[in-house]
Amino acid sequence: MARYLGWSIAVLACVFWNVAAAEAETVKVTPLGAAAGEFSALDRALLFEDPTGVRILYDPGLTVSPTDSRLGVVHAILVSHGHGDHLGSTPAIAAAKNAAVIAAPNLTNFIGKKVQAITGMPTPSCPPSPPGVGFNEMTVPRPGPCVALLGISGSRVVTMGGSGVAIATVVANHDSSAAAASVSDPLKTELTTDGLSAYLDPANGFAVKFTNGLSVYLTGDTGLTAEMDTIVREFYQPSLMVINIGDLFTTGPEAAAFATTQLVRPNTVIPSHANEAATAGGDVVPGSRTARFIAAVKGGRDDHGHGHDRKGIRVHVPKSGITMEFDARGTCVNGCS
User: Rounded to whole angstroms, how far apart are CA atoms 223 and 248?
Assistant: First the structure.
């Protein structure tokens, strides 16, 4: 009995040590914006690096090109919807980096055709690797670009052979369409004549679970949704959130703060899609949308009288080229001011 008890304690100690070691590892998040050290109007792109080495680019937008020296290796690209300020040069980046593009079904087909125009070869669907193992798991790096459709609440795992990064899609309340100029005739002419764009599925956000235990909610462009409180917070339980604050077409600063503090309740939040020169000399511009968002998250009251309960949620502004490192609980342990 004593020998069995000792063995059991040793096994439990090993398990706890392995869990603690995994949680001590960090996920690196690097904003790839328009100006080094700043948070600028068109900034959308974030590059995530898992402790296993898996590197995922989120919404490349208009500040990243396929030859951008900041990119390095890119294994997968997440695209929330088809608008140019998020899609950007995704097809060219995928072709240059042999990356898997993960997006809604019609959007992946659209991107796949764009990749084909660059490579001269049909763009394959990303297969499970090795064949016959977990149909939603893919091994990276890939031998060439591929497209991986993902419907709402569907999931895929990106792995380098061991534990992988789990990626699921969640609802976003927003349009997803491609400009008429980006599609082929005769549809191009028909859409242009009527002043329309090409519909490409509903927009979506992403819930990403990294191998150190960090769970991240990437809202994409969205308005307020009830799913933030139920599905996102209760099921995916993110400790880090990236939310658009641009207003007009999406949540503005106060609405985004309400979503953060009252609905999702992460430990940490990163504002995105501010549509403004949010910082100057690396400092947040007073009176900016970003400043308003930070103030609202810290406990102010918005224009509709909603109070926030000061949950101690930390706000970190994404400054281009400055890598932030997050532990399993969404605490920034390096690179955040």
Answer: 10
Cβ contact 250:223 at 8 Å: yes
Residue 93 to residues 35, 76, 87, Cα–Cα distance (Å)? 20, 10, 11
Write a three-state SS string for 149-178. Answer: ECCCCCEEEEECCCCEEEEEEEECCCCCEE
What is the residue type of 228? Answer: M
For residue 250, which phi and psi values (nearest 5 degrees)? -140, -175
Contacts with 192 (C-beta within 8 Å, 6 or more apart), sequence order: 180, 181
The DSSP 8-state label assigned to residue 204 in this structure reads: E
Strand partners, 204: 171
Measured distance CA(146)–CA(333) in Å, rounded: 34
Residue 49, both tokens? 């690096």
The CA R_g of the chain, rounded to the nearest whole Å, is 21
Q: Could you give the C-alpha distances from 278 to 57, 145, 162, 219, 285, in angstroms and in order?
A: 22, 35, 40, 19, 6
What are 325's strand-pairing partners? Answer: 28, 334
Say how far apart CA 335 and CA 324 lie, in whole Å: 4
The DSSP code for 273 is -
Q: What is the pLDDT of residues 116-172, one digit of tens each?
A: 999 999 999 998 765 655 678 999 999 999 999 999 999 999 999 889 999 999 999
